[in-house]
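REQUEST ID: PR-0412
SUBMITTED BY: lab tech R.K.
PRIORITY: routine
TASK: structure prediction, single protein chain
INPUT:
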Amino acid sequence: MNYLIGVDLGTSGTKTVLFDTEGTVISSATVEYPMYQPKNGWAEQAPEDWWDATMRTTKKVIEDSGVDSKDIKGMGISGQMHGLVMLDENGSVLRRSIIWCDQRTARECEEITERVGAKRLIEITANPALPGFTASKILWVRNHEPEIYAKCRHILLPKDYVRYMLTGEFATEVSDASGMQLLDIPNRCWSDEVLEKLDIDKSMLAKVYESPEITGYITEGQIVLDRQLHGQSIYPPITIGTSGVVFAHSDKVTIDPQGRVHTFCSAVPGCWTVMSCTLAAGLSLKWFRDNFFLEEMQTAKGMGVDPYYLMDRQAERAPIGANRLVYLPYLMGERSPKLDSDCRGVFFGLSAMHTKYDMLRAVMEGVIYSQRECLDILRGMGVVSSEMLACGGGGSSPMWRQMMADVYNLPVKTVVSKEGPALGVAILAGVGAGIYPSVAEACRKVVKTNPAQAPIPENTGRYEEFYRVYCGLYPQLKDCYKALAAL
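STATUS: complete
OUTPUT:
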Protein backbone atom coordinates (compact mmCIF):
# COMPACT_ATOMS: atom_id res chain seq x y z
CA MET A 1 0.00 0.00 0.00
CA ASN A 2 1.09 3.58 -0.68
CA TYR A 3 1.13 6.36 1.90
CA LEU A 4 1.48 10.15 2.00
CA ILE A 5 2.70 12.58 4.66
CA GLY A 6 1.20 16.00 5.31
CA VAL A 7 3.06 18.52 7.47
CA ASP A 8 1.12 21.47 8.91
CA LEU A 9 3.66 24.06 10.07
CA GLY A 10 1.48 26.30 12.22
CA THR A 11 2.11 29.19 14.59
CA SER A 12 1.59 27.28 17.82
CA GLY A 13 3.14 24.04 16.64
CA THR A 14 3.78 21.61 13.79
CA LYS A 15 1.49 18.65 13.19
CA THR A 16 2.56 15.83 10.91
CA VAL A 17 0.07 13.21 9.71
CA LEU A 18 0.57 9.96 7.81
CA PHE A 19 -2.34 9.08 5.48
CA ASP A 20 -3.18 6.22 3.20
CA THR A 21 -4.32 7.11 -0.30
CA GLU A 22 -7.99 7.10 0.78
CA GLY A 23 -7.25 9.95 3.20
CA THR A 24 -7.45 7.77 6.32
CA VAL A 25 -5.22 8.87 9.18
CA ILE A 26 -2.65 6.20 10.01
CA SER A 27 -0.75 8.16 12.66
CA SER A 28 -0.13 11.75 13.71
CA ALA A 29 2.14 13.75 16.00
CA THR A 30 2.38 17.36 17.17
CA VAL A 31 5.23 19.40 18.65
CA GLU A 32 4.61 22.92 19.97
CA TYR A 33 7.05 25.85 20.08
CA PRO A 34 7.03 29.44 21.41
CA MET A 35 6.27 32.77 19.78
CA TYR A 36 8.47 35.64 20.95
CA GLN A 37 7.10 39.15 21.42
CA PRO A 38 10.07 41.38 22.38
CA LYS A 39 7.93 44.52 21.90
CA ASN A 40 4.24 45.36 21.69
CA GLY A 41 3.03 44.35 18.23
CA TRP A 42 6.13 42.29 17.39
CA ALA A 43 5.99 38.55 16.75
CA GLU A 44 8.92 36.24 16.00
CA GLN A 45 9.73 32.54 15.92
CA ALA A 46 12.91 30.51 15.57
CA PRO A 47 13.13 28.64 12.23
CA GLU A 48 15.20 25.99 14.00
CA ASP A 49 12.13 25.21 16.12
CA TRP A 50 10.10 24.49 12.98
CA TRP A 51 12.78 22.17 11.66
CA ASP A 52 13.16 20.37 14.97
CA ALA A 53 9.37 19.90 15.20
CA THR A 54 9.21 18.57 11.64
CA MET A 55 11.97 16.06 12.24
CA ARG A 56 10.51 14.84 15.52
CA THR A 57 6.93 14.52 14.28
CA THR A 58 7.91 12.84 11.01
CA LYS A 59 10.04 10.30 12.83
CA LYS A 60 7.25 9.60 15.30
CA VAL A 61 4.46 9.07 12.76
CA ILE A 62 6.59 6.60 10.83
CA GLU A 63 7.69 4.73 13.96
CA ASP A 64 4.17 4.65 15.43
CA SER A 65 2.62 3.41 12.20
CA GLY A 66 5.08 0.61 11.48
CA VAL A 67 4.89 1.60 7.81
CA ASP A 68 7.94 0.93 5.64
CA SER A 69 9.29 4.33 4.65
CA LYS A 70 9.72 3.05 1.08
CA ASP A 71 5.93 2.96 0.81
CA ILE A 72 5.65 6.69 1.59
CA LYS A 73 5.43 8.23 -1.87
CA GLY A 74 5.23 11.93 -1.09
CA MET A 75 5.36 14.65 1.53
CA GLY A 76 3.46 17.94 1.37
CA ILE A 77 4.08 20.98 3.57
CA SER A 78 1.48 23.52 4.63
CA GLY A 79 2.87 26.57 6.35
CA GLN A 80 2.01 29.78 8.10
CA MET A 81 2.28 32.52 5.51
CA HIS A 82 4.44 35.65 5.20
CA GLY A 83 7.17 34.80 7.73
CA LEU A 84 10.62 36.11 6.77
CA VAL A 85 13.48 33.60 6.94
CA MET A 86 16.92 35.01 6.07
CA LEU A 87 19.88 32.72 5.39
CA ASP A 88 23.55 33.51 4.79
CA GLU A 89 25.73 32.06 2.03
CA ASN A 90 26.12 28.82 3.99
CA GLY A 91 22.38 28.38 4.47
CA SER A 92 22.50 29.32 8.17
CA VAL A 93 19.68 31.32 9.79
CA LEU A 94 20.67 34.96 10.35
CA ARG A 95 17.92 36.01 12.77
CA ARG A 96 14.60 34.84 14.18
CA SER A 97 11.78 34.91 11.66
CA ILE A 98 9.49 37.94 11.74
CA ILE A 99 6.16 36.12 11.32
CA TRP A 100 2.81 36.89 9.75
CA CYS A 101 1.12 38.69 12.68
CA ASP A 102 4.03 41.09 13.37
CA GLN A 103 2.97 44.74 13.06
CA ARG A 104 6.27 46.67 13.25
CA THR A 105 6.57 47.60 9.57
CA ALA A 106 4.08 50.47 9.11
CA ARG A 107 6.79 52.87 7.89
CA GLU A 108 8.16 50.28 5.50
CA CYS A 109 4.66 49.87 4.06
CA GLU A 110 4.63 53.61 3.40
CA GLU A 111 8.03 53.26 1.73
CA ILE A 112 6.76 50.45 -0.51
CA THR A 113 3.69 52.49 -1.50
CA GLU A 114 5.85 55.52 -2.32
CA ARG A 115 8.33 53.50 -4.38
CA VAL A 116 5.84 51.43 -6.37
CA GLY A 117 2.71 53.59 -6.27
CA ALA A 118 -0.51 52.59 -4.48
CA LYS A 119 -2.51 51.85 -7.63
CA ARG A 120 0.33 50.06 -9.41
CA LEU A 121 1.09 47.93 -6.34
CA ILE A 122 -2.47 46.60 -6.28
CA GLU A 123 -2.43 46.02 -10.04
CA ILE A 124 0.67 43.82 -9.76
CA THR A 125 0.47 42.20 -6.32
CA ALA A 126 -3.34 42.43 -5.93
CA ASN A 127 -2.93 43.97 -2.48
CA PRO A 128 -1.88 47.21 -0.78
CA ALA A 129 1.31 47.27 1.28
CA LEU A 130 0.58 45.54 4.59
CA PRO A 131 2.70 44.96 7.72
CA GLY A 132 1.87 41.27 7.67
CA PHE A 133 3.37 40.66 4.23
CA THR A 134 6.99 39.68 3.68
CA ALA A 135 8.22 42.61 1.56
CA SER A 136 7.83 45.14 4.36
CA LYS A 137 9.71 42.79 6.71
CA ILE A 138 12.61 42.61 4.25
CA LEU A 139 12.77 46.40 4.14
CA TRP A 140 12.55 46.61 7.95
CA VAL A 141 15.63 44.41 8.34
CA ARG A 142 17.46 46.45 5.70
CA ASN A 143 16.53 49.71 7.46
CA HIS A 144 17.12 48.61 11.06
CA GLU A 145 19.60 45.71 10.90
CA PRO A 146 21.80 46.53 7.89
CA GLU A 147 24.59 44.26 9.09
CA ILE A 148 22.23 41.27 8.93
CA TYR A 149 20.79 42.29 5.58
CA ALA A 150 24.29 42.56 4.14
CA LYS A 151 24.91 38.90 4.98
CA CYS A 152 21.59 37.68 3.53
CA ARG A 153 21.79 35.50 0.43
CA HIS A 154 18.49 33.63 0.60
CA ILE A 155 14.97 34.76 1.53
CA LEU A 156 12.47 31.99 2.29
CA LEU A 157 9.02 31.52 3.79
CA PRO A 158 8.57 29.24 6.84
CA LYS A 159 7.63 26.06 5.00
CA ASP A 160 10.23 26.80 2.34
CA TYR A 161 12.90 26.74 5.03
CA VAL A 162 11.72 23.34 6.23
CA ARG A 163 11.78 22.03 2.66
CA TYR A 164 15.27 23.47 2.20
CA MET A 165 16.41 21.55 5.27
CA LEU A 166 14.80 18.38 3.90
CA THR A 167 16.08 18.63 0.34
CA GLY A 168 18.65 21.40 -0.01
CA GLU A 169 16.42 23.10 -2.60
CA PHE A 170 15.48 26.81 -2.55
CA ALA A 171 11.89 26.73 -3.80
CA THR A 172 8.47 28.22 -3.10
CA GLU A 173 5.06 28.02 -4.75
CA VAL A 174 2.52 30.48 -6.03
CA SER A 175 -0.07 30.42 -3.23
CA ASP A 176 2.42 31.19 -0.46
CA ALA A 177 4.60 33.48 -2.58
CA SER A 178 1.45 35.55 -3.25
CA GLY A 179 1.66 36.86 0.31
CA MET A 180 5.21 38.17 -0.05
CA GLN A 181 4.05 41.29 -1.97
CA LEU A 182 6.73 40.55 -4.57
CA LEU A 183 4.74 38.27 -6.89
CA ASP A 184 2.94 39.31 -10.06
CA ILE A 185 -0.40 37.73 -9.09
CA PRO A 186 -2.10 37.72 -12.53
CA ASN A 187 0.99 36.19 -14.19
CA ARG A 188 2.07 33.92 -11.28
CA CYS A 189 5.78 34.91 -11.30
CA TRP A 190 8.14 37.27 -9.45
CA SER A 191 7.56 40.90 -10.42
CA ASP A 192 10.74 42.41 -11.84
CA GLU A 193 9.13 45.84 -11.62
CA VAL A 194 8.39 45.61 -7.89
CA LEU A 195 11.78 44.07 -7.11
CA GLU A 196 13.59 46.80 -9.04
CA LYS A 197 11.64 49.62 -7.38
CA LEU A 198 12.25 48.12 -3.93
CA ASP A 199 15.91 47.37 -4.75
CA ILE A 200 15.62 43.71 -3.74
CA ASP A 201 18.00 41.29 -5.45
CA LYS A 202 15.91 38.68 -7.30
CA SER A 203 18.68 36.09 -6.85
CA MET A 204 17.82 35.94 -3.13
CA LEU A 205 14.33 34.64 -3.90
CA ALA A 206 13.46 30.99 -4.40
CA LYS A 207 12.27 29.44 -7.65
CA VAL A 208 8.47 29.61 -7.98
CA TYR A 209 6.43 26.45 -8.67
CA GLU A 210 2.76 25.61 -9.02
CA SER A 211 1.55 23.92 -5.84
CA PRO A 212 1.21 20.32 -7.10
CA GLU A 213 4.62 20.37 -8.79
CA ILE A 214 7.56 18.42 -7.42
CA THR A 215 9.95 20.82 -5.69
CA GLY A 216 12.53 18.46 -4.24
CA TYR A 217 13.45 14.93 -3.18
CA ILE A 218 14.40 13.55 0.23
CA THR A 219 15.34 10.11 -1.03
CA GLU A 220 14.27 8.11 -4.07
CA GLY A 221 10.50 7.65 -4.07
CA GLN A 222 9.81 10.35 -1.49
CA ILE A 223 8.63 13.65 -2.94
CA VAL A 224 8.25 17.01 -1.22
CA LEU A 225 5.59 19.49 -2.36
CA ASP A 226 4.16 22.65 -0.90
CA ARG A 227 1.18 24.34 0.53
CA GLN A 228 -2.26 23.81 1.90
CA LEU A 229 -5.21 22.95 -0.32
CA HIS A 230 -7.90 25.32 0.91
CA GLY A 231 -11.02 23.20 0.65
CA GLN A 232 -10.95 23.03 -3.20
CA SER A 233 -13.63 24.89 -5.15
CA ILE A 234 -16.82 23.28 -3.88
CA TYR A 235 -17.58 25.74 -1.04
CA PRO A 236 -15.82 28.85 0.28
CA PRO A 237 -14.10 27.69 3.46
CA ILE A 238 -13.82 29.72 6.64
CA THR A 239 -10.93 28.82 8.92
CA ILE A 240 -10.50 29.68 12.59
CA GLY A 241 -6.98 28.85 13.70
CA THR A 242 -4.63 31.32 15.35
CA SER A 243 -5.83 33.68 12.65
CA GLY A 244 -9.23 33.54 10.97
CA VAL A 245 -9.51 33.30 7.20
CA VAL A 246 -12.39 33.42 4.73
CA PHE A 247 -11.52 31.90 1.35
CA ALA A 248 -13.39 32.04 -1.93
CA HIS A 249 -12.19 30.16 -5.01
CA SER A 250 -12.20 31.75 -8.47
CA ASP A 251 -11.12 30.75 -11.96
CA LYS A 252 -10.23 34.37 -12.73
CA VAL A 253 -8.31 37.19 -11.05
CA THR A 254 -10.74 39.19 -8.88
CA ILE A 255 -9.19 42.11 -6.96
CA ASP A 256 -10.72 44.44 -4.37
CA PRO A 257 -9.45 47.89 -5.45
CA GLN A 258 -9.57 49.06 -1.82
CA GLY A 259 -7.32 46.21 -0.70
CA ARG A 260 -9.61 45.17 2.16
CA VAL A 261 -9.26 41.49 1.26
CA HIS A 262 -6.44 39.67 -0.53
CA THR A 263 -6.23 37.98 -3.90
CA PHE A 264 -3.66 35.19 -4.08
CA CYS A 265 -2.79 32.48 -6.56
CA SER A 266 -4.59 29.28 -5.68
CA ALA A 267 -2.97 25.95 -4.92
CA VAL A 268 -5.03 24.73 -7.89
CA PRO A 269 -3.14 25.67 -11.09
CA GLY A 270 -4.85 28.34 -13.18
CA CYS A 271 -7.07 29.50 -10.32
CA TRP A 272 -7.01 32.19 -7.64
CA THR A 273 -8.36 32.67 -4.12
CA VAL A 274 -9.87 35.78 -2.62
CA MET A 275 -9.28 35.72 1.11
CA SER A 276 -9.42 37.76 4.27
CA CYS A 277 -7.41 37.46 7.46
CA THR A 278 -8.53 38.25 11.01
CA LEU A 279 -5.19 38.29 12.83
CA ALA A 280 -6.39 37.22 16.28
CA ALA A 281 -9.29 34.82 15.76
CA GLY A 282 -8.38 31.62 17.59
CA LEU A 283 -5.60 33.65 19.23
CA SER A 284 -8.27 35.72 21.00
CA LEU A 285 -9.83 32.61 22.48
CA LYS A 286 -6.44 31.16 23.41
CA TRP A 287 -5.46 34.45 25.07
CA PHE A 288 -8.69 34.43 27.05
CA ARG A 289 -8.27 30.76 27.99
CA ASP A 290 -4.70 31.18 29.19
CA ASN A 291 -5.53 34.20 31.35
CA PHE A 292 -9.02 33.49 32.72
CA PHE A 293 -9.75 29.76 32.46
CA LEU A 294 -6.85 28.10 34.29
CA GLU A 295 -9.19 26.13 36.57
CA GLU A 296 -11.14 24.83 33.60
CA MET A 297 -7.88 23.83 31.92
CA GLN A 298 -6.97 21.73 34.96
CA THR A 299 -10.45 20.21 35.06
CA ALA A 300 -10.26 19.35 31.37
CA LYS A 301 -6.89 17.70 31.88
CA GLY A 302 -8.36 15.54 34.63
CA MET A 303 -11.34 14.62 32.46
CA GLY A 304 -9.18 13.89 29.44
CA VAL A 305 -11.02 16.39 27.25
CA ASP A 306 -10.04 19.51 25.31
CA PRO A 307 -10.32 22.70 27.44
CA TYR A 308 -12.20 24.35 24.58
CA TYR A 309 -14.93 21.72 24.95
CA LEU A 310 -15.57 22.93 28.50
CA MET A 311 -15.34 26.55 27.39
CA ASP A 312 -18.08 25.93 24.83
CA ARG A 313 -20.31 24.67 27.62
CA GLN A 314 -19.48 27.71 29.76
CA ALA A 315 -20.15 30.15 26.92
CA GLU A 316 -23.63 28.69 26.58
CA ARG A 317 -24.41 30.17 30.00
CA ALA A 318 -24.56 33.62 28.37
CA PRO A 319 -27.25 34.66 25.86
CA ILE A 320 -26.75 35.93 22.33
CA GLY A 321 -25.09 39.33 22.66
CA ALA A 322 -23.35 38.28 25.91
CA ASN A 323 -25.66 40.52 27.98
CA ARG A 324 -24.84 43.53 25.78
CA LEU A 325 -21.07 43.02 25.72
CA VAL A 326 -19.16 43.35 22.43
CA TYR A 327 -15.55 42.32 21.79
CA LEU A 328 -13.24 43.71 19.08
CA PRO A 329 -10.58 41.04 18.29
CA TYR A 330 -7.68 43.34 17.45
CA LEU A 331 -5.03 41.91 19.79
CA MET A 332 -2.36 42.07 17.08
CA GLY A 333 -3.70 45.01 15.08
CA GLU A 334 -5.85 44.03 12.12
CA ARG A 335 -5.57 43.23 8.44
CA SER A 336 -8.99 42.44 7.07
CA PRO A 337 -10.86 44.58 6.47
CA LYS A 338 -9.34 47.31 8.68
CA LEU A 339 -5.72 47.54 7.43
CA ASP A 340 -4.74 49.09 10.76
CA SER A 341 -1.63 47.98 12.66
CA ASP A 342 -2.43 50.34 15.56
CA CYS A 343 -5.87 49.04 16.57
CA ARG A 344 -6.10 46.84 19.65
CA GLY A 345 -8.66 44.63 21.39
CA VAL A 346 -11.67 46.10 23.17
CA PHE A 347 -14.49 44.93 25.43
CA PHE A 348 -17.31 47.41 24.85
CA GLY A 349 -20.22 47.66 27.26
CA LEU A 350 -18.48 46.03 30.22
CA SER A 351 -20.43 46.41 33.47
CA ALA A 352 -20.34 45.07 37.01
CA MET A 353 -22.95 42.45 36.14
CA HIS A 354 -20.75 40.71 33.59
CA THR A 355 -18.98 37.47 34.38
CA LYS A 356 -16.07 35.81 32.63
CA TYR A 357 -18.64 33.64 30.86
CA ASP A 358 -20.18 36.73 29.27
CA MET A 359 -16.70 37.84 28.26
CA LEU A 360 -15.97 34.40 26.82
CA ARG A 361 -19.10 34.48 24.68
CA ALA A 362 -18.33 38.04 23.60
CA VAL A 363 -14.87 36.91 22.43
CA MET A 364 -16.37 34.11 20.35
CA GLU A 365 -19.01 36.40 18.88
CA GLY A 366 -16.51 39.19 18.15
CA VAL A 367 -14.36 36.84 16.08
CA ILE A 368 -17.39 35.79 14.04
CA TYR A 369 -18.47 39.42 13.55
CA SER A 370 -14.99 40.26 12.28
CA GLN A 371 -15.16 37.48 9.72
CA ARG A 372 -18.72 38.49 8.78
CA GLU A 373 -17.34 41.92 7.79
CA CYS A 374 -14.90 40.15 5.48
CA LEU A 375 -17.58 37.85 4.12
CA ASP A 376 -19.74 40.86 3.26
CA ILE A 377 -16.89 42.25 1.13
CA LEU A 378 -16.48 38.93 -0.68
CA ARG A 379 -20.22 38.87 -1.30
CA GLY A 380 -19.95 42.31 -2.84
CA MET A 381 -17.23 40.96 -5.15
CA GLY A 382 -19.49 38.13 -6.25
CA VAL A 383 -17.20 35.29 -5.21
CA VAL A 384 -19.20 33.61 -2.42
CA SER A 385 -21.57 30.68 -2.91
CA SER A 386 -24.59 29.62 -0.86
CA GLU A 387 -22.78 27.25 1.53
CA MET A 388 -19.79 27.50 3.84
CA LEU A 389 -17.14 24.98 4.88
CA ALA A 390 -15.70 25.43 8.39
CA CYS A 391 -12.08 24.37 8.96
CA GLY A 392 -9.40 24.76 11.61
CA GLY A 393 -9.68 24.37 15.36
CA GLY A 394 -12.64 26.74 15.56
CA GLY A 395 -14.50 24.66 13.01
CA SER A 396 -14.49 21.73 15.44
CA SER A 397 -16.61 23.70 17.93
CA PRO A 398 -20.35 23.02 17.41
CA MET A 399 -21.16 26.28 19.19
CA TRP A 400 -18.85 28.37 17.00
CA ARG A 401 -20.20 26.63 13.89
CA GLN A 402 -23.75 27.50 14.89
CA MET A 403 -22.67 31.11 15.45
CA MET A 404 -21.20 31.08 11.93
CA ALA A 405 -24.40 29.70 10.43
CA ASP A 406 -26.54 32.23 12.32
CA VAL A 407 -24.36 35.30 11.76
CA TYR A 408 -23.54 34.53 8.11
CA ASN A 409 -27.06 33.20 7.44
CA LEU A 410 -25.52 30.27 5.56
CA PRO A 411 -25.48 26.49 6.07
CA VAL A 412 -22.09 25.48 7.48
CA LYS A 413 -20.47 22.13 6.73
CA THR A 414 -17.30 20.51 7.99
CA VAL A 415 -14.92 18.03 6.42
CA VAL A 416 -15.09 14.54 7.88
CA SER A 417 -11.32 14.49 8.33
CA LYS A 418 -10.05 16.71 11.15
CA GLU A 419 -6.68 17.07 9.44
CA GLY A 420 -7.53 19.82 6.94
CA PRO A 421 -4.13 21.44 6.22
CA ALA A 422 -2.14 18.21 6.50
CA LEU A 423 -4.64 16.33 4.34
CA GLY A 424 -4.64 19.12 1.76
CA VAL A 425 -0.90 18.98 1.20
CA ALA A 426 -0.88 15.19 1.31
CA ILE A 427 -3.37 15.36 -1.60
CA LEU A 428 -1.06 17.74 -3.48
CA ALA A 429 1.85 15.38 -2.83
CA GLY A 430 -0.25 12.52 -4.17
CA VAL A 431 -0.96 14.46 -7.36
CA GLY A 432 2.74 15.15 -7.81
CA ALA A 433 3.58 11.51 -7.17
CA GLY A 434 1.06 10.35 -9.78
CA ILE A 435 -1.25 8.66 -7.27
CA TYR A 436 -4.14 10.97 -8.25
CA PRO A 437 -4.65 12.28 -11.81
CA SER A 438 -5.55 15.84 -10.71
CA VAL A 439 -6.33 17.96 -7.67
CA ALA A 440 -10.04 17.92 -8.47
CA GLU A 441 -10.13 14.11 -8.83
CA ALA A 442 -8.18 13.69 -5.60
CA CYS A 443 -10.61 15.91 -3.71
CA ARG A 444 -13.60 14.00 -5.04
CA LYS A 445 -12.02 10.76 -3.85
CA VAL A 446 -10.65 11.87 -0.48
CA VAL A 447 -12.55 14.92 0.83
CA LYS A 448 -15.88 14.03 2.45
CA THR A 449 -18.20 16.47 4.23
CA ASN A 450 -20.57 16.15 7.20
CA PRO A 451 -24.21 17.31 7.12
CA ALA A 452 -24.59 21.09 7.33
CA GLN A 453 -25.62 23.08 10.39
CA ALA A 454 -28.41 25.38 9.24
CA PRO A 455 -28.95 28.94 10.51
CA ILE A 456 -31.66 29.44 13.12
CA PRO A 457 -33.79 32.35 11.86
CA GLU A 458 -34.54 33.90 15.24
CA ASN A 459 -30.85 33.77 16.16
CA THR A 460 -29.86 35.38 12.86
CA GLY A 461 -32.07 38.39 13.56
CA ARG A 462 -30.78 38.80 17.11
CA TYR A 463 -27.11 38.57 16.08
CA GLU A 464 -27.72 41.13 13.35
CA GLU A 465 -28.57 43.77 15.96
CA PHE A 466 -25.28 43.26 17.79
CA TYR A 467 -23.33 43.00 14.54
CA ARG A 468 -24.46 46.52 13.63
CA VAL A 469 -23.18 47.79 16.98
CA TYR A 470 -19.88 45.98 16.34
CA CYS A 471 -19.51 47.60 12.91
CA GLY A 472 -19.99 51.06 14.39
CA LEU A 473 -17.23 50.81 17.00
CA TYR A 474 -14.03 50.83 14.95
CA PRO A 475 -14.79 54.10 13.08
CA GLN A 476 -15.38 55.79 16.43
CA LEU A 477 -12.14 54.43 17.91
CA LYS A 478 -9.79 54.80 14.94
CA ASP A 479 -8.32 58.15 16.00
CA CYS A 480 -8.03 56.96 19.60
CA TYR A 481 -5.97 53.97 18.44
CA LYS A 482 -3.59 56.31 16.62
CA ALA A 483 -3.25 58.52 19.68
CA LEU A 484 -2.58 55.54 21.94
CA ALA A 485 0.05 54.15 19.56
CA ALA A 486 1.84 57.50 19.55
CA LEU A 487 2.27 57.63 23.34
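NOTES: DSSP finds 17 helices and 22 strands in the chain.
REVIEWED BY: pending
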